[in-house]
């Protein structure tokens, strides 16, 4: 994980922060930490589960992300 340089002093400061990035971050001890993209294995597992649920429940009752 990559750390950014910005450290928040208050929760309101965090809520108003916008860096116009499409990356995902988590807030840990006042610092934004970049969350790495999903691995290929995780995506493969999610697709497999999606297909299994769609077969069981019907394609109209299951939605992807």
Describe the structure.
The protein has 65 residues and is α+β, with helices and mostly antiparallel strands. The longest helix has 18 residues, at 40-57. The chain is elongated and about 50 Å long. The chain has helices spanning 11-16, 40-57, and strands at residues 2-7, 25-28, 31-34. The mean pLDDT is 82. It is built from 2 helices and 3 strands, in the order E-H-E-E-H. The chain has a 3-stranded antiparallel beta sheet with strand order 1-3-2, with no helix packed on it.
A few lines on this structure:
Helix content is 37%, strand content 22%.
- β-strand percent reads 15-25%
Q: What is the helix tally?
A: 2
**Overall pLDDT level:** 82
Structural class: alpha+beta
- Distance linking N and C termini: 23 Å
Q: Using only CA atoms, what is the Rg?
A: 17 Å
Helix content: 25-40%
- Sheet having the most strands: 3 strands, antiparallel
- Give me the side-by-side strand order of the main sheet: 1-3-2
**What is the succession of H and E elements?**
EHEEH
CA-based shape = elongated
Low-confidence blocks of residues: none
Q: What is the total tally of β strands?
A: 3
